[in-house]
Write a structure and sequence with these properties.
The complex is a heterodimer of chains A (533) and B (118).
Chain A lengths: L2 H28 L3 H29 L2 E4 L6 E3 L5 E3 L3 E4 L1 H24 L6 H20 L3 H19 L6 H32 L4 H10 L6 H18 L6 H9 L2 H25 L1 H6 L1 H28 L3 H27 L5 H36 L15 H14 L6 H16 L1 H26 L15 H19 L1 H17 L1 H11 L1
Antiparallel strand pairs in A: 1-4, 2-3
Helix pairs in contact in A: 1-2, 1-4, 2-3, 3-4, 3-10, 3-14, 3-18, 3-19, 4-5, 4-10, 5-6, 5-10, 6-8, 6-9, 7-20, 8-10, 9-13, 10-13, 10-14, 12-13, 12-17, 13-14, 13-16, 13-17, 14-15, 14-16, 14-18, 14-19, 15-17, 15-18, 16-17, 16-18, 18-19
Chain B lengths: L3 H5 L2 E2 L4 E2 L1 H20 L24 H4 L8 H6 L1 H10 L4 H21 L1
Antiparallel strand pairs in B: 1-2
Classes of the chains: A mainly alpha (533), B mainly alpha (118).
Chain lengths: 533, 118
């Protein structure tokens, strides 16, 4: 085995281990000086990105990868005769690698943006340490094939996110938002843990493939414990992802955290959303493909909640006057679009005549995950740039910033066009897939989704006019464009948005379609895992 | 790697299609046409004359800074019409963590009932 094969083999572990090592070394490296620390963090994340590239190439060419931690015996037998499976397994398919790819993009841009944005703050050694730990937890959630392991990473993401939301500790609002976040996250995590207990009681396993396999072997029944566990997991993760009416923590947290923190917390939110995809289609996919009435009903519940999310998001965004809180409500609406595709996918899963519609919806939803991260992320970074330059978050107090901050204005414009689904931006391509697939399920859903998208444009017309256009005002006389590292961070995202918008077929063909196929056919996932173990 | 054909490929959406490159070419041609038509317009416009001053029924023009429409004044008609909906939604977003948890429990109960019945 040469060194490249060795790295490829161990890349799943190294992807988590590299930022984890960096997190613990950062306080030590900070003792040298800030510049060395910043370079160190960037290098470690770039190495992680390289490893993601290597693993991604391997998964997309050779199929699902498994990585088993620990050697020797796979099980421990207690004196009572009870057998425990002690090994943790990472299971990486196209969907996992798609999410990891998004996370590493977010992570690197977050750090680049932070170099200037957080420069004047104290306690940056702790900031970078906690950011790296958050990145570890997100990557872990996306790579693991073990439900308990997922829970552990979920908990790490909750604690680190809470610490980061409260980073501006001198602000009462930031502390309050962090408190709400940890309360909500802890409750969701407890219910999630309870559900794991139920599944473990039922199937004596915590590995997702093992549970899915046992469910299918169990005469394809959707029994009481399966139902209870399903509801507990889905509702908990949906709250962590920001599904209405459980989304209120999200607007508080996104609105009060530093922009760079909000940007990476979007990744944590998407990891919870990934959990919903995984549970609905990989864990329970076999049941939903055969128990027609269950998948249909559950699909429709999710569709209705998704529509409520979209509408609440845009309607509330329209009346916001705080820049970041407004974008947070738009983020809620965008999450609604992704949930809509999960609902459509579930509704059509058991109907052979509609499966193609579900497949298109899933492609739209998965494509929208990356678009949402890029578009909403860019808007948050632009709002952060405005705050950095003006120390102002109220839209009522802003005017004429385009005269002083040309590049930020252009980046914000690109972000708003993308998030509103204006062609030829990336948001249009994913929303087109969503509109067309939902139309075939029920035209009214599609009409509501399109109207909400138009309202999103109206929301951003208001923001763009009140903040960037209009006359210059005296208090912004000395406002200057933000430093280069912040512009580079925003510029890279804007560039990716344009490339994804102009060539959506490439993204769909190489990233989105394999991810959607991986979710829709859970038998491949199960057989690949059991072959690997 | 990516061939030119795959870069220019049309995205099939099931019942429709989308090709951004064709769209960009079309919109560029339209913009060029608009620019040419604009160039054919009148050229007697004079800067720094009465032509550029706003006419407010004879009232004096305020400072530009004061003329800017504030964010909270926009879409006044829409928000006024939707007042009843906004009253409900604002009550929902009261910032109370206990209420956030309550919504979580309500949704969980509703989903439990529906999933239990099917």
């Amino acid at each position: 085995m040469n060194w490249f094969e060795l790295i490829t083999t161990h890349s799943p572990a190294l992807i988590v281990a590299t930022p984890l090592l960096a997190a613990f070394l950062t306080p030590l490296v900070s003792r040298i000086n800030d510049t060395v620390r910043n370079i160190f963090v960037l290098i470690m994340l770039s190495i992680t990105g390289l490893l993601v590239g290597i693993l991604g190439y391997d998964v997309l060419t050779n199929g699902i990868r498994t990585y088993v931690f620990g050697g020797g015996s796979t099980v421990v037998t207690l004196p009572s005769g009870l057998v425990f499976h002690v090994r943790i397994i990472f299971e990486i398919d196209a969907m996992s690698i798609f999410m990891v790819f998004i996370t590493i993009i977010l992570a690197i841009i977050c750090i680049v943006y932070s170099l200037s944005f957080m420069k004047k703050e104290d306690g940056l050694d702790k900031y970078y340490t906690v950011i790296l730990l958050l990145i570890v937890s997100i990557l872990g959630m996306e790579l693991t094939g073990d439900l308990f392991n997922f829970f552990v990473f979920l908990e790490i993401s909750c604690i680190t996110s809470c610490a980061l939301i409260a980073f501006w500790v001198h602000k009462g609002e930031a502390l309050e938002a962090a408190f709400k976040y940890i309360v909500i996250s802890s409750i969701a995590a407890l219910f999630f843990l309870f559900a794991l207990g139920l599944l473990y009681t039922q199937y004596n396993a915590l590995n997702m493939a093992a549970i899915a396999n046992a469910m299918q072997a169990n005469s394809i029944q959707f029994g009481l414990l399966d139902r209870v566990a399903f509801v507990l997991i889905i509702v908990s993760l949906a709250m962590k992802a920001g599904l209405a009416p459980m989304h209120m923590w999200l607007t508080d947290a996104y609105g009060e955290a530093p922009a760079s923190v909000t940007y990476i917390i979007i990744g944590a939110t998407m990891a919870s959303l990934y959990g919903v995809f995984r549970v609905c289609f990989t864990l329970y996919g076999g049941i939903f493909q055969t128990v027609v009435i269950s998948s249909f009903s559950i699909g429709w519940i999710i569709v209705i909640l998704a529509l409520v999310t979209i509408l609440i998001g845009v309607i509330m965004a329209l009346i916001q006057t705080d820049f970041r809180r407004l974008i947070a409500f738009v983020a809620v609406a965008e999450i609604g679009y992704i949930f809509l595709t999960i609902g459509v996918g579930l509704t059509t899963l058991s109907d052979p005549n509609m499966i193609a519609v579900g497949q298109t919806a899933m492609q739209g939803g998965i494509f929208h995950i990356i678009n949402d991260c890029l578009d909403i992320g860019l808007l948050f970074l632009a709002a952060g740039a405005v705050y950095y330059a003006t120390k102002e978050t109220s839209l009522n107090e802003m005017s004429g910033l385009a005269r002083k901050m040309k590049y930020t204005t252009i980046f914000f414009l690109i972000g708003l066009l993308a998030v509103s689904g204006i062609p030829p931006m990336n948001g249009f391509a994913s929303k087109l897939l969503i509109y067309e697939s939902t139309y075939q399920l029920n035209p009214i859903i599609s009409i509501i989704a399109i109207l909400a998208s138009i309202m999103l444009l109206a929301v951003f017309v208001k923001v763009f006019y009140s903040a960037f256009l209009g006359p210059k005002i005296s208090k912004f006389e000395n406002v200057k464009e933000v430093p280069k590292s912040m512009l580079i961070g925003m510029g890279v995202i804007a560039g990716i948005i344009i490339i994804f918008g102009l060539f959506p077929n490439i993204v769909i063909q190489y990233l989105v379609e394999p991810a959607a196929n991986a979710l829709m056919s859970n038998t491949q996932y199960i057989s690949a895992i059991f072959g690997g173990v | 790697m990516f061939s030119l054909e795959s870069l220019l490929e049309t995205l099939k959406t099931g019942s429709g299609f989308w090709n951004p490159i064709v769209w960009v070419v079309a919109i560029t041609i339209i913009f060029l046409l608009v620019y040419v038509l604009r160039g054919l317009g009148k050229k007697e416009y004079k800067k720094e004359t009465g032509q550029t001053q706003a006419f407010l029924s004879g009232n004096p023009e305020y400072e530009k800074e004061l003329m800017h429409v504030k964010s909270s004044n926009m879409y006044w008609g829409f928000t006024e019409t939707m007042k009843s909906i906004y009253t409900v939604l604002k009550k929902m977003h009261n910032g109370n963590a206990s209420d956030y948890v309550l919504w979580f429990l309500i949704i969980m109960a509703v989903v439990f009932v529906i999933v239990g019945l099917v």
